[in-house]
Specification:
- This protein is 46% helix and 15% strand.
- It has 23 helices and 20 strands.
- By secondary structure, it is of the alpha+beta class.
- It folds into four domains: 2-106, Winged helix-like DNA-binding domain superfamily/Winged helix DNA-binding domain (Arc Repressor Mutant, subunit A); 132-235 and 252-333, P-loop containing nucleotide triphosphate hydrolases (Rossmann fold, 3-Layer(aba) Sandwich); 339-407; 414-581, Winged helix-like DNA-binding domain superfamily/Winged helix DNA-binding domain (Arc Repressor Mutant, subunit A, Orthogonal Bundle), CATH 1.10.10.
- The two termini are 53 Å apart.
Length: 584
């Protein structure tokens, strides 16, 4: 652990502390700070820092300014009189504070308070990684539902991006519940909510009525909520012969609430509703009723959802905010895994206690701490025979047989399918903007998107801002000044996987057309100074298959480098131009 003034930086676990208190810092700004702190007193150039954060990917240096600005706010630093991060204009950054090594390990309790200890906390079990605090909070919520007539209902929203481990946390928690606890689960399904009311509720009731105590639960439902029982195909009593069939009785939410309260009088009841972002309005209204009723109930409701998969007008957003305001619920937000947790996850997946050098760092970097992404990357490494089992006599022992950078740029199939499903749900104009942004890199400016889709810059920037507010695909990270004084916002994809899938899903002809438009727009913006952006123009022309124009741009960039006495750069650019010309 590194210490500078009142701050401690735990690079292994991806945490920053001030006076022992954890500081919320997104992965990319943390990575910038970590690299600077690991190299105190040394000039870190823009190129070196970008290569560290986005290896083998072209990213505009402007994005670093936003991250450094965010770090200065967190550290209480000033650009004009820096205590920590010194800016060297047009060159890079230097970490100027004194850095020392600290052996102290800081852990965070379930309540969020930082504690110092000699040892890091152990994971809850060998198969469950890095969710000790969240698990402790769920156990605390379960303990609060009380006993008998004093039971007090609790609602917990478990939120996080796709693949972050919401279901894994719920599964592990439910397996550890005391004997006699009743668990009923229902899962919302995309598209079904619009056709069938109470879909996850029906599924949960079905679980109740097929459990070991089904007869008891069915009797309660038959007495207090017969219409609900009939709807899931269970008759409350044998049908009476009659010449006229009665009309179906309406399912009243109050009837079901009362029945669930009655069930919870004899033993604790845990209701799990997964993927609530796909829930129908009737299910959300029932959840609100369950939370607001005053009758005693030993009832715990666990509801999972992806916060960025709901638009501002979605009723779930208003429901959660209202319940939080009235203290009717608790929220558990799952964050990406730090590097140490990713290493533990991989060891569990490979069933070995030590990993090949560099594997956990590689997987953590490319997964950005998403456990589902991490496992998919490991499976991809095995499928491509980069990670190979060398164990004998049934013992697991995987080794890296070829350099990790040999991994193809193809997104692992499982991840590609998951991202493609999310993309398919987007409106065509939204998809068009994201595809255009993917032509640049993980970071992209609004002006380039406007050029690619041949639209007005101001209009595109407004639409990109709306995307950043409403979707988890991108976030706005700052703005840049263009020649002539105009300004353009730029954005970053939430994950490289999203960018790669969006890029590959475009036809080759459409990609080429858009790349050429961006290159030509660069030439217009920097008219008279084309050499300043010739390297970037060449990248777009080459991606479009316009090899002659790519070589011309590189020759111009080489001449510009020679004028600045950057002779090695000029030679490199001329060599690359010659390689391209040989392919024409």
């Amino acid at each position: 652990m590194k210490q500078f003034e009142a701050f401690k930086l735990d690079s292994a676990n991806g945490c920053l502390y001030r006076d022992g208190e954890p500081i919320d810092l997104p992965p990319k700004p943390f990575a910038v700070l970590n690299f600077l702190v690991e190299n105190p007193g040394r000039l870190i150039t823009h190129d070196e820092l970008l290569d560290k954060l986005w290896p083998e990917t072209f990213v505009q240096p402007q994005v670093l300014r936003t991250y450094v600005l965010e770090l200065r706010k967190v550290l209480g630093d000033e650009a004009g009189n820096p205590r920590f991060i010194q800016t060297l204009p047009k060159r890079g950054y230097r970490f100027v504070a004194s850095v020392t090594n600290s052996q102290e390990v800081i852990s965070v309790s379930a309540s969020g308070a930082a504690q110092s200890s000699a040892q890091a906390p152990h994971p809850a079990s060998p198969g469950f990684v890095n969710r000790t605090n969240e698990l402790a909070l769920l156990r605390s919520e379960f303990d609060r539902i009380g006993q008998g007539d004093q039971g007090k209902r609790r609602v917990v929203f478990i939120i996080g991006e796709a693949g972050i481990g919401k279901t894994a946390l719920v599964d592990f928690f439910c397996r550890q519940l005391p004997a006699g606890t009743v668990v009923a689960r229902g899962e919302c399904v995309s598209g079904v909510g619009a056709r069938e009311e109470y879909y996850p509720v029906n599924e949960a009731l079905g679980h109740l009525c097929t459990s070991t105590a089904a007869e008891e639960w069915c009797r309660i439902l038959a007495r207090m909520a017969p219409a609900w029982l009939a709807h899931i195909g269970r008759q409350s009593e044998p049908p009476q012969p009659s010449s006229a069939q009665p009309t179906a009785q309406a399912r009243m939410p109050g009837d079901l609430c009362a029945a669930l309260e009655e069930i919870s009088r004899t033993r604790p009841l845990v209701l799990v509703f997964e993927d609530l972002h796909w829930a129908d309005a009737a299910t959300l209204n029932l959840l609100a009723a369950l939370a607001r009723r005053r009758a005693p109930a030993r009832l715990l409701v666990l509801a999972t959802f992806r916060p960025h998969s709901i638009v501002p007008a979605h009723p779930l957003r208003a429901l959660k905010h209202d319940m939080l305001f009235h203290k009717l619920c608790t929220e558990v937000a799952l964050e990406p895994f730090p590097r140490a947790a990713v290493a533990s996850l991989i060891m569990g997946e490979l069933h070995q206690s030590a990993l090949p050098p560099g594997l956990s760092e590689f997987v953590h970097h490319h997964s950005e701490g998403n456990p589902l992404f991490a496992i998919a990357i490991v499976e991809h490494l095995i499928a491509q025979q980069i990670l190979v089992s060398a164990g004998q006599n049934g013992a697991a022992h995987y080794e890296i047989r070829s350099p990790l950078h040999n991994l193809s740029s193809e997104v692992p199939g499982k991840l590609a399918e998951m991202v493609e499903l999310e993309i398919e749900r987007l409106a065509p104009d939204v998809k068009e903007l994201l595809e255009a942004g993917s032509l640049l890199s993980v970071a992209f400016p609004a002006w380039a998107v406007a050029a690619a889709v041949d639209c007005d810059h101001a209009e595109v920037e407004e639409r990109c801002d709306a995307l950043a507010r409403d979707l988890h695909f991108v976030e706005r990270v700052g703005e840049d000044e263009l020649p002539g004084g105009a300004r353009s916002a730029f954005y970053v994809f939430a994950h490289e996987v999203y960018r790669e899938v969006l890029y590959q899903n475009q036809s080759a002809a459409r990609r080429a057309q858009r790349h050429v438009r961006i290159a030509e727009r660069l030439a217009q913006l920097f008219k008279g100074r084309e050499a300043d952006v010739a390297r970037e123009m060449a990248m777009h022309y080459e991606a479009a298959g316009e090899m002659k124009r790519a070589a011309q741009a590189l020759r111009a960039a080489a001449a510009h480098a020679a004028e600045r006495n950057a002779h090695f750069e000029a030679v490199e650019l001329n060599d690359r131009a010659a390689q391209i010309e040989s392919q024409v």
